[in-house]
Structure formats: structure tokens, C-alpha cells
Amino acid sequence: MSIDDQIQRRLRAIGYGAAERARLQRYSAIVDRTIDRIIVDDFERAFHIYPVLRESVGQVADTLYALEGSHFRLLFEGIFDSRYASSLDKLSRLERSTGVGPRPRVSIGVALFKEILFQSRTAAILSPKRLRRDLY
Q1: End-to-end C-alpha distance for the chain, whole angstroms
Q2: CA-CA distance, 92 to 67, in Å (whole number)?
Q3: pLDDT tens, 33-69?
Q4: Other C-beta atoms within 10 Å of 61: how many?
Q5: pLDDT digits (tens, 9 = 90+) for 76-98
Q6: What own/partner pairs with CB < 8 Å and gap ≥ 24 does 68-75 have?
Q7: Alpha-carbon distances, residue 58 vs 7, 12, 47, 107 (angstroms)
Q8: How far apart are alpha carbons 29 and 127 in whole angstroms?
Q9: Where are the alpha helices (DSSP H) in the chain?
Q10: Which of 5, 7, 11, 51 has its CA 20 to 30 A from that of 88?
């Protein structure tokens, strides 16, 4: 089964549809504004904790950071098509080759989630209707 088929199968299993896509897309502007900084900060934190990672990531850092950023941007487009599957495959291969595995995606995702919560809640203070909409 291809990566694209696996993704589509999982999306069907969780009932992913237009409402969920729209919810992801609402946050894409925040992702665009913050993802590059979050990626750099996250890797710097990882290098501080695990200095040996700096060596394994070093020569491909620009490529890895760019792939991480484009992958998160695709995620928040909410369209899980062949572009997303290809991004996932390329990113996973590069992460494995550098020895970092999927940990950066998890850590970056948590930091991004925090940023989205902060920025969307700040906006909600100014717009209570938006808060109700985001709470489903």
C-alpha cells in the first residue's frame, strides 16, 4: 500500500472532511508567519541537548529545515494529496539519514500548537464570535 493510500485510509477512519480541512486552513497564516522561526529554535534546542546531532544534521540543515517548513505548510493546507505524501516520504528519509528520526516533527508540532493557541486566543479576545467558531 502506498503512502498516499495509507494517508487516505487513515483520514477516512477519523472522518476527516471539509470542516476539518477548513479548521486547518484557518491557522495557515499563523503557520506561514511562525514555522521557520520555530524550526530553527527547535533544532538549536535539540543541538544544545544532544550536541552530536549538530554534526549529523550540519551539512543538510538547510534542506532539512526547508522540508520541515514546507511539510507543515502542506499540513495546514488540509489537502492530503500526492504532494503531502511525497513531502512526508522525502522528509522521513532525510530525518532517518541524519539520525534524528521523527522527533523534530513532534517537537516542532508541539511548539507550533502552542503558537497557534496563543495567537488564536489573543485574536479571540478581540473577536468572541471567532472563539465560538474555533471551539466547534
Answers
A1: 34
A2: 10
A3: 999 999 999 999 999 999 999 999 989 999 999 999 9
A4: 15
A5: 999 999 999 999 999 999 999 99
A6: 68/35, 68/39, 68/104, 68/105, 68/108, 69/35, 69/36, 69/39, 71/105, 72/31, 72/35, 72/108, 72/109, 72/112, 73/28, 73/31, 73/32, 73/35, 75/24, 75/31
A7: 31, 39, 10, 19
A8: 17
A9: 3-13, 18-26, 28-49, 52-58, 61-75, 82-98, 103-126, 128-134
A10: 51
| 39 vs 97: CA distance, rounded Å | 18
The whole-angstrom separation of Cα 4 and Cα 48 is 35
Cα-based distances in Å from 122 to 98, 110, 111: 37, 18, 17
Instruction: Report the pLDDT value the prediction gives residue 119, as an integer from 0 to 100.
Output: 82
Q: What is the rounded distance in angstroms from the CA atom of residue 23 to the CA atom of residue 2?
A: 27
Cell numbers 528520526 correspond to: 101
